[in-house]
Design goal:
The structure holds 3 protein chains of 3 kinds.
Chain A: H1 3-49, E1 53-54, E2 59-60, H2 63-94, H3 97-112, H4 115-138, H5 157-182, H6 185-193, H7 198-227, H8 230-235, H9 253-260, H10 267-301
Antiparallel strand pairs in A: 1-2
Helix pairs in contact in A: 1-10, 2-3, 2-5, 2-7, 2-9, 3-5, 4-5, 5-7, 6-7, 7-10, 9-10
Chain B: H1 2-41, H2 47-51, H3 65-95, H4 100-113, H5 117-132, H6 137-161, H7 165-173, H8 178-207, H9 233-241, H10 246-282
Helix pairs in contact in B: 1-10, 3-6, 3-8, 3-9, 4-6, 5-6, 6-8, 7-8, 8-10, 9-10
Chain C: E1 14-23, E2 26-36, E3 41-45, H1 52-59, E4 70-77, E5 80-81, H2 89-95, E6 96-99, H3 111-122, H4 128-141, H5 145-148, H6 161-174, E7 179-183, H7 191-203, E8 209-213, H8 217-223, E9 226-231, E10 234-240, H9 241-246, H10 251-257
Helix pairs in contact in C: 3-4, 3-6, 4-6
Chain lengths: 312, 293, 262
């Protein structure tokens, strides 16, 4: 084959393949928005702040689902983040060297477990456990702390938050580990040379340098939690109402889609679901964009560090 | 001064203990979940589990053969979509480290991989299921393919970047054209890592449920027709888990155990392959003098 | 020692005319004009960072592949101009072989396939017999044949550093270049390996024009016919080797070869 032709062909093919990725993203957004448009133009207010989801009467109040999504994800984040960063610090700076690889491997394995497995465990182990042991123990506090008020049947906001926390912990830990590894060893050595203890090196040299990356990692976890469907659907109770207590059942946007999409009964219903999908898409797009930008700042801002880049 | 250094040491010990706690708490769920899967699912892992179709509730036996075959078919379709485009994109990204378009693609690939997988199912539904009027394996496979496309692309990029520049230059200096260098030297050297990434992509595609809910949809009967609804292992697990029958629930556990074993084996294989290849490649990158003959 | 000789046409003279090169933010070479005599060995010496490697990379047009790189001036190989607009770069690199500082065998290929790689790239229709003959010839010229004859199809990575470097030389010779560029080829080898390579370079006389970068003064003195001394990207002096080392005309050359700097 003539060289210029071969090279040109190669260039074109690889460029087209690379362009496929932004194309998919753009197409995806366009398709969803287009299908959501009827509902967005007719029911925008309802979708945004309405609390009644009543399909036969064309009421599409998606606020409970939206609130449920945000609440379950944020609670999961609060639980998972300190643990995840702790694990990351363990596997990079503090843990005994021989344990670092195995722990890191196990954490990555956790991230690879399919969500239906988590959901299965959640619905058959966690929820019964909550119902039989944890909730009854905390219910008495319900009169004082409204978060613990009953009734408590099991499937609940807290159940979903716990399962989500277990699912996003390995993800945040893994990204945080990469971020910490990207901090150049020169920084650590400088601190050590000044007489810092091992923990002080982490606190004063490593964490500040990694800060924006760690925040980015947490946001990636948030993005994951916002979009998680299966495991949440199986344990959250699927009730179209804003939860008053942790033990109340709730709903998320993704669960709503999972439950109702296949049997959408009318064009209006379908379009409303598409609108919910559009909202979910836009929220996760923004979160992911911001998160990735933050994570990249650590990699490019520090010369001489190691960066292993993408996730598996 | 002594009190201060005592305090510093004590803080250090407390923080170390906390990170140990975090590590243990992080790993415990894996142990617990594995234990439950084994206890509840192991006895269902009989040969009939893998070879028979689902039996009606209350009837003993039955298996998930159609779901396993369906999953294989879906993953095959997904990889047919994701691998050529993903490797092409990965080569492009590896060869354009700083171009603005490449940076945008890299960012968008990462963003795409973080989106809810159910949205990809909706995308495939709108593009394929709605116009054709029925659920199909094509739709499910394509949704899964789009899901793992960014993964294959970024992993290919990283594996290709590991190939030392020296090898590329040696090929160019021999008079290889650019495309020949990329395909016969670079890609070949990076191949084990890329194959590993493909295995990981396959395991990811095999475990996803949400995109299949209204594309492949599931099928209680035997079917290998890509234009019709098709069963899939995670879909089957989901359906069984929601059923009131103990038999089926037990099979849900068994299916989940199969998925976990699959994911674990691929994770171990991935670690091993990438470690070995990195060692081999470091032999070609700068090293301090070596004893000779 | 090597017995076989390739039956090339006589090797060309390589002429660099006012060659300047560098990157967007800094210049590396400043108007270098030097001639490598046909079929002989030109050594390029100088302290680290003076641009020696860049000279080689300009001859086979590898330099321009780096980001922000520029090249001005002329490179002529015999009557052939390397930077003419109509020049086929791939054909150029077939005529000009290159061996790098560290051995760079193709990690996935066997010894045989490494040597054959260049041949296969340039000649699509070659019989197996012809290919084997060319590979054997190249390995003999590189002085490696006897050591690898019974592990031709094993991995190239099990060879020692010196053997791998000679493998890379065989690979470069296999395509039949009439110019060979070597960038500190013995830097990572021990004395024994170094000697072998110096011997094989001597055997290439007349058939190949050799241009070698080295930081080892004694090596330049041993095997080159002409030596060029570079300092900060400029050519300070270029003369027949014996003359440069015994009666250098520039004070800086004298300072360098007597070890006062670099």
């Amino acid at each position: 084959m003539q060289t210029p032709l071969g090279d040109r062909l190669y260039r074109t093919v690889t460029t087209v393949c690379a362009a496929a990725i932004p194309l998919v993203l753009v197409l995806l957004t366009a398709v969803v928005l287009h299908a959501a448009w009827p509902a967005l133009s007719l029911h925008a207010r309802d979708l945004a702040v309405g609390t009644t989801w009543d399909v036969p009467h064309a009421r599409f109040g998606a606020l409970p689902a939206t609130v449920g999504t945000l609440l379950s994800s944020l609670i999961a984040l609060v639980i998972a983040t300190p643990l995840a960063i702790g694990v990351a610090i363990f596997t990079v700076d503090v843990g005994p060297p021989r344990l670092r690889e195995p722990v890191s491997f196990l954490v990555n394995l956790l991230a690879a477990v399919p969500s239906v497995v988590y959901g299965l465990w959640g619905v058959f182990v966690l929820v019964p456990l909550l119902r039989s042991t944890v909730m009854p123990a905390l219910l008495p506090l319900g009169s004082a702390i409204s978060l613990f008020r009953g009734p408590a049947y099991g499937p609940s906001l807290i159940a979903a938050s716990l399962v989500l926390a277990i699912m996003i912990l390995p993800y945040i830990a893994s990204v945080s580990r990469d971020v910490l590894l990207a901090v150049p060893s020169a920084q650590r050595e400088a601190a050590l040379a000044l007489g810092a203890t091992r923990w002080e090196v982490v606190r004063d040299a490593v964490l500040p340098a990694a800060r924006s990356g760690l925040v980015g990692g947490v946001m990636l976890g948030l993005g994951r939690a916002l979009g998680e469907t299966l495991a949440v659907t199986m344990v959250i109770g699927n009730r179209h109402a804003i939860p008053d207590s942790l033990f109340d059942p709730a709903y998320t946007m993704a669960s709503l889609l999972a439950n109702e999409f296949a049997e959408a009964s009318s064009d209006a219903h379908l379009s409303a679901l598409m609108a919910v999908a559009a909202m979910l898409l836009l929220i996760t797009l923004l979160v992911n964009l911001l998160a990735r930008w933050l994570v990249r700042r650590v990699a490019t801002g520090l010369p001489g560090g190691r960066w292993s880049g993408g996730r598996w | 001064m002594n009190a201060r250094s005592h305090r510093r040491k004590r803080t250090g010990r407390v923080m170390t203990a906390l990170t140990w706690t975090a590590a243990i708490v992080a790993v415990i769920p894996l142990v617990i979940i594995l234990a439950h899967l084994l206890v509840n699912g192991l006895e269902q892992l009989t040969p009939t589990f893998f070879t028979q179709l689902p039996s009606p509730p209350g009837v003993r036996g039955g298996g998930v053969a159609n779901a396993i075959v369906g999953s294989i078919m879906l993953v095959a379709i997904a990889m047919t979509v994701a691998v050529p485009v993903g490797i092409g994109a990965g080569l492009y990204l590896a060869e354009h480290r700083r171009g603005r378009f490449a940076q945008a693609v890299r960012l968008l690939a990462d963003v795409l991989s973080g989106l809810p997988s159910i949205v990809l199912g909706i995308f495939a539904w709108e593009l394929i299921v709605r116009p054709s009027g029925h659920f199909s394996a094509w739709a499910g496979g394509i949704a899964l393919g789009l899901l793992v496309l960014p993964l294959v692309a970024r992993a290919t990029e990283e594996m290709v970047r590991l190939v030392p520049v020296a090898l590329t230059e040696a090929a160019l200096a021999l008079g290889f054209s650019r495309w020949r260098t990329s395909l016969t030297v670079v890609l070949r050297t990076a191949m084990p890592g890329i194959v590993t990434a493909m295995l990981i992509a396959m395991s990811r595609a095999a475990g996803e449920t949400a995109p299949l809910l209204f594309t492949a949809f599931g099928n209680p009967f035997w079917s290998v027709d890509p234009a019709r609804p098709i069963a899939a292992l995670p879909l089957q697990i989901y359906a069984y888990a929601q059923s009131p029958y103990d038999e089926w629930r037990a099979q849900a556990w068994a299916g989940a155990l199969v998925l976990l074993i699959l994911v674990t084996m691929i994770s171990i294989a991935a670690r091993a392959v990438v470690g070995a290849r990195t060692k081999l490649l470091s032999a070609v990158t700068p090293r301090v003098g070596r004893t000779d003959e | 020692m090597n017995e076989s000789r390739a039956t090339n046409a006589s090797a060309p003279q390589v002429r660099l005319g006012r060659l300047s090169a560098g990157f967007a933010d800094r210049s590396v070479l400043r108007t270098i004009s030097v001639e490598a005599p046909a079929g002989r060995v030109l050594a390029i010496v100088g302290p680290s960072g003076c641009g020696k490697s860049t000279v080689l990379r300009c001859i086979n047009r590898l330099h321009e592949l780096d980001e922000g790189a520029y090249v001005n001036g002329e490179v002529e190989i015999g009557a052939f101009s390397a930077y003419a607009p109509t020049t086929d770069v791939v054909a150029l690199r077939r005529r000009v072989g290159m061996v790098f500082q560290r051995p760079t065998p193709f990690v996935t290929l066997s010894v045989f396939d490494n040597v054959a790689a260049g041949i296969r790239a340039h000649r699509r229709h070659i019989t197996q017999n012809e290919l084997e003959a060319l590979v054997e010839t190249a390995l003999q010229r590189a002085g490696l044949w006897r050591e690898v004859v019974d592990r031709l199809f094993g991995s190239a990575m099990v060879l020692s550093g010196g053997q791998q470097q000679r493998l890379c030389i065989a690979r470069a010779l296999a395509v039949g270049p009439d110019v060979l560029l070597l960038d500190e080829p013995t830097a990572s080898l021990d004395p024994m390996g170094t000697q072998r390579i110096e011997e094989l370079l001597y055997d290439l006389r007349d058939t190949v024009t050799v241009i070698m970068v080295t930081h080892n003064m004694q090596q330049a003195a041993r095997i080159s016919d002409v030596t060029a001394f570079l300092l900060n990207g400029s050519l300070v002096e270029c003369a027949p080797t014996r003359q440069l080392f015994t009666t250098p005309s520039d004070a800086r050359t004298e300072a360098y070869i007597t070890g006062r700097f670099g």
